[in-house]
Structures are given as structure tokens and as C-alpha cells.
Amino acid sequence: xxxxxxxxxxxxxxxxxxxxxxxxPDALDKLILSGEAPPIIIVFPDDRxxxxxxxxxxxxxxxxxxxxxxxxxxxxxxxxxxxxxGGMSRGAGWAVRLGLLHxxxxxxxxxxxxxxxxEDGSRIERWLKxxxxxxxxxxxxxxxxxxxxxxxxxxxxxxxxxxxxPHEWHLYRGxxxxxxxxxxxxxxxxxxxxxxxxx
Length: 199
Prior knowledge:
By secondary structure, the chain is an alpha/beta fold. The chain is built from 7 helices and 6 strands.
């Protein structure tokens, strides 16, 4: 049997265990054991050099080395329809960059408290123009009403509306904190899993 793959990227100052500490595997286990979700492989890439400039290194390694390794080593379904990428904060910055720039690899993108890289603000529209309408990814966006990134995230969401990109938009109470992400972890995992509920 082969499985969909979800790549979840951590935030700045954190490491690959952030999603684990905040409950992602536990949330998915409950869904799978209850029959509410199919089995899914989750990969937690480690952007341990977050304190360096957001150059091409991490993204290039994820796309050109990690994904091929995961597909060759594990029982994945190696297609864009069965591959998702998501992240919190800086991780969401990577997710929007990699998900739109490499739209041929990902059909599902989760942007949780998105922190857009400064140099990417002017690039997002260009990336959207390069994606065939028939290949638009499905996107989930959420952010707290006390998040310093809110204004920038609203600009990105408005751009998605302009292009007719299918997405969910959620503005919740909260800030740019692990407490906020932990409070919404079950919702995040349920959303990702729901994309593969109907084979």
C-alpha cells in the first residue's frame, strides 16, 4: 500500500520537533484510528539554519534531495495530487514559496500565521501567473487578529482572491505564538487529511 505525504515546516527559532511537540502526530493518529482519515506519511524537514538569510539552500534541498529520497525510500504516492506542504510562520513562508514556485510538486498548501520572506512579497503574483488555472493548488490560510504579520497576510489573501485561487481563509483571535498554533493543531491536521478522504 502507498500513502500521501505531508511536509510540515517549522517556524523561526524552532526545529523539526515543533509540529511534534504541538501535537500533529497525535492529532493524525486519532483520525486514522477512528477511520476519519486515511494513513498519511508526515515529514518534518529541519530548517536548522533559520538564522541565515533565506537563500535557496533549504528550499533546493527539500525539492531536489528530500522529496526524491522520501519517494524512493518510503511507500509514497509520488504525485502532486498526493503531496502537500504546510508551515507555521517562517515555515509558512517557505510553504508559499515552494508550493507556488514548484506547483508541479504540490497540490495542497497550508499557511499558518504566514510570514512572507521580504524578497517574496513582489514575487507571489508572478508565481501565480505561471500556474495553469487547471493546476491551482488548494490552500488553507489562518492567522491571529493580534499577529504582526496580519496586514501582509491579508494582502496575499486578496491576491489569491484576484486570481480565483481556491482557498480557505480564517482570522482567529490570537497572536504569533505556539499557544495559538497548538490551539488550532487539530483543525490543521483535519484539513490536510480531508484532502485525501475521497480516493
